[in-house]
Amino acid sequence: MHFMFTSPKKSSILRLTFKLFCFCFCTLGFALMSHGQTPQDLLNQWNSNTQGGVTYPGCEQWKITFPTGDEEKDLCNDVANNRKEFYYVNNAGNGIVFRAPIRSDNGTTPNSSNVRSELREREVDGDVDVYWTTSGHHVIYVKQAITHLPINKPHLVATQIHGNKSEGIDDAMVVRLENQRLFLDFNGGQLRSEVTIKNNYSLGTVHEVIFEVIDGKHYAYYSEDGNLKNAFTSGNASNYRVTDGGNAVLMDINYGDAYFKAGNYTQSNPSQEGNDTDDPDNYGEVVVYDLVVDHDGDFGSGGNPPTGGGCSANVPGSRTVSNVGQTSATLSWNFDDSFNHYNIRYALAGSTNWTYKTTLRESEGDFTVSGGKAFYNLTGLSNNTAYRWQVRAKCDDQTIATAYNDGEGQGFTTSGNSNPNNCNLPWAGDDVSISNESVTVSLGVVDISCENQVCLSLTAEGLGNMESSDYLNIYYKVNGGAQQTLYSKTDSFSTANFEQCGISGNTLEVIVNGATSVTSEVYNVYNVEIRGDGNGQGGTGSTFTPDPNAVYYIDSPHHNLRLGATGSSEDAFTTSTNTTGANVEWKFVAKGNGFWHVQRAAGGALPRLRTDNSPNADMQATSSSGSYTYYEFEEGYLNGSYFMTLPDGPNAYSRLQVNSSGQVKFVSPSSALTWESFTFTKVTGGSTGNNCDVPWSGPDVSISNEAVSISLGVVDISCAASVCLSLTAEGLGNMESSDYIDILYRVNGGATQTLYSKTDSFQSANFEQCNISGNTLEVIINGATSVTSEVYNVTNIEITGSSSNREMLVEEKESKAVYAYPNPFSSELVVALPDTSKEVNSTVYLIDQFGNIVFTQEGVTSGDTFTITPSIRPGIYYLKWVGATGQVLHSETLLKQ
Fold first, then answer.
1. Would you say 841 and 882 are in contact if contact means Cβ atoms under 8 Å apart?
2. In the chain, which segments carry CATH 2.60.40.10?
3. Contacts of 381 (CB under 8 A, 6+ apart)
């Protein structure tokens, strides 16, 4: 690897192209840049990579995401003109400017509610995104300056390590600036507490940052003297390490799917900025002056790296649990003072979606030692919930253990809420107005002991021609402890909403502290509310069973907003409940396991609503059908409303919510109040009989650079004596034996059967299986390829009635009308058979969506009317009338509520 890379010959052509372009480019409002440098020139000067005897320029190693949400994967050529305001070379010609303006037409970027102009690491040849594990040695070096922050939420992230979201890692370690406080953040405090770098960072201060990972140990280095790069490559950078209480290892944790990011991830958006959205001065900005990534050790190490053989990290013994409460439990194990620290991770029972507590040392925080035992007080749990946990011993900063192993602890279940009705929630506080005075106001101490967690929300504004001497601080205290900041601001600001959730304890006090110097300058704080998680308020057993043939509006009655999606954007949105049309019309699609997908009725490339294991509501294709995509509907907090919950989704992000800013979010199911309550209003359609799914067409499936298992849904085929399943498939590219595709189907929820199975590539071909008979048919596609140039495509997926009965199906549906009412039904169902035919000794079946017969009425004759009271759970059912010779006379879909 070489680090002072001279641009390839093509850079002279790029410079000439840039000079010719600058005549037009600069008229758009950009400064004239006589240096002739382009971002790719600088990326190439800073770094290059050699792999397999080929040297690749640094521009190949990155892609960029713009504030518009668009990506550019080819950074070795100029980006499009309309993107150059987000990514360009500064006037001095020595830095790349990453600019993220907050505009109403820019919106947000995928997988986040915030805006960014940010690089994401790729393989050195630029072919695909890179993913690595924390084993080995990994370094990112960035020389940068944060030069501008948003107006109302002045927060920005510059330089990141990302990890596996499904393991609870995500933003593993990042540099974050909030106002003047520059600090390291570890997935929002989920992995460990924040570490402050400095409290008085001045915008524009050039600094060097290094993140170094050595076999799971995470180190950070920071310098403003310009000497960090030389010191690190010389092995003498230990004085620049950011430490926590003298400990250089900031986090000791192993994970996969890791990659580096650099540039500007502005932590705000139009909802946060309110009326200041589209203000030309409302943006986040970072200038990068040098950038190196190294995974081979060629860049060096900061000094005194860990060495091997220091200790043997045996699994801690006697792993027990005590003091189990509603939201906490005390974990304990045998303590060994030869180890430097311990890591804990915990998850729901049976799950591997871990939450981590890392680098736990004696007498720090909730970790104590007594009588040869270690004790850790685990908090922030959900009540009435079963958990598992593991603990791992770790060696000191300068020693690698011969083995690290996680020991499974004693499982436990938190207790229920024993006092749900006698505290002060929900609570509304007094309005506060501060003008021509300096005041500190306590709104009182609120009893929150009856709830697992609460949310504190309010609205604030600063009006008038204020100066920096005018200020507003909004604090809160839990259990009378230290003051914590909800919002702090000097000068004026537009009206904005603020919220802090996940607060747990017995009491909560809200404190407002502020000052203005004249009567025309006013700080207002109002709509102050504390609301609980609603345990015991909703979810009393009533559920909603959708009609799969109907179209619905999904409304948030508390906010008077309607859920919407475009079908092409990854972001769901809200709009007025007066809005109609395709963007606010939804349908419910049976998953086949008793739960439901929620998707845009008009379809689109991204019609299905899901979580991406973060607070963000994410729209995806119908091929996305896993546990993050299907819902159950239980009685909500408001009359006639329902909670929309992912029963098998990530615990922290499994309930849908519309927050105070009108954003569509996912929260913990412990949140169960007005923001999480939705109503479903039928727009059109409904079960009218004669409506099974044959003929049926499935969505196309494309598999590239991934391993997937996709169910296309459970199809009702009960109206046909038999059906044919047909499709077209192909395998394109230079595939190997490790690439594969399996096309399977399942009748009546039984064992999977194979329609086609193939490893390696193959030419396009048609496949068909006929004479399939039953009540339901599910199509499943499993497959994998290792690179983007290898693709399996499955198209033209159809289920049709076999040729011998296709015409008969149409005739029977027209002539043999059966009346089953009411539909939907709750207890009794009346079945009235037509008397236009001469059917005797026929049979009526009621079949669930898995193909199981749950009711049989034999020996019925045309014209008979009878009542059935089946003892069945709510859901979709199919009524089938079969003649004495086995001919299907009629089939229709029913809903049991």
1. no
2. 313-413
3. 326, 327, 328, 329, 387, 414
CA dihedral (195, 200, 201, 205) in degrees, to 10, reads -140
In this structure, whether the domain defined by 427-532 belongs to CATH 2.60.120.200 is answered with yes
Pick 84-294's CATH classification: 3.40.50.300, 1.10.10.10, 2.60.120.200, 3.40.50.2000.
Answer: 2.60.120.200
Q: Are 687 and 549 in contact (CB under 8 A)?
A: yes
Report the C-alpha gap between 548 and 685 in whole angstroms: 9
Beta-sheet strands, E only, within 79-216: 87-89, 96-101, 115-121, 137-148, 155-162, 171-178, 181-185, 195-198, 207-214
CATH 2.60.40.1930 residue window(s) in the chain: 816-896
Helix (H, G, I), strand (E, B), or coil: what is residue 166?
A: helix
CATH class of the 816-896 domain in this structure: mainly beta
DSSP 687-708: --SS----SEEPPPEEEESEEE
Higher-pLDDT residue of 271 and 234 is 234
Locate CATH 2.60.120.200 in the chain. 84-294, 427-532
* Cα 158–Cα 164–Cα 169 angle in degrees, nearest 5: 65
The b/e string for 450-465 (b: 16+ C-beta within 10 A; e otherwise) is bbbbbbbbbbbbbbbe
Give residues with Cβ within 8 angstroms of 782, minimum separation 6: 708, 709, 710, 740, 741, 742, 744
What are the phi and psi torsion angles at 229 (to 5°)?
-60, -45
| Burial environment of residue 480 by CB neighbours within 10 A (0 to 12, 13 to 18, 19 or more) | exposed
Q: Tens digit of pLDDT for each residue in 738-787? A: 889 999 998 876 778 999 988 888 888 889 898 898 877 888 898 888 88
Which overall architecture, per CATH, does domain 313-413 show? Sandwich (2.60)
- Per-residue pLDDT of 477-536, as tens digits, reads 988 778 899 998 888 888 888 888 888 888 888 999 988 888 888 999 988 888 875 433
The pLDDT tens digits for 561-602 are 899 999 888 889 998 887 888 889 999 998 878 899 999 988
110 preceded by a cis bond (ω within 30 of 0): no
pLDDT of residue 2: 38
At the topology level, CATH places domain 550-684 in Trefoil (Acidic Fibroblast Growth Factor, subunit A) (2.80.10)
Please determine, for residue 423, whether its predicted confidence score (pLDDT) is greater than 70.
no
**Superfamily per CATH, domain 696-806:** Galactose-binding domain-like (2.60.120.260)
- Distance separating alpha carbons of residues 694 and 691, to the nearest angstrom: 8
In SS3 terms, 670-687 reads as CCCCHHHCEEEEEEEECC
Q: Tokens 């119908």 map to which residue?
A: 622
At a CB cut-off of 8 Å and minimum separation 6, what does 303 contact? 231, 232, 235, 236, 237, 238
Rg (the chain; Cα; Å) = 31
The amino acid that residue 560 corresponds to is N
pLDDT in tens, 294-334: 998 888 777 654 444 445 567 788 888 888 887 888 898 88
CA distance linking residue 891 with residue 813, whole number of Å: 8
**Across residues 336-343, what is the average pLDDT?**
73
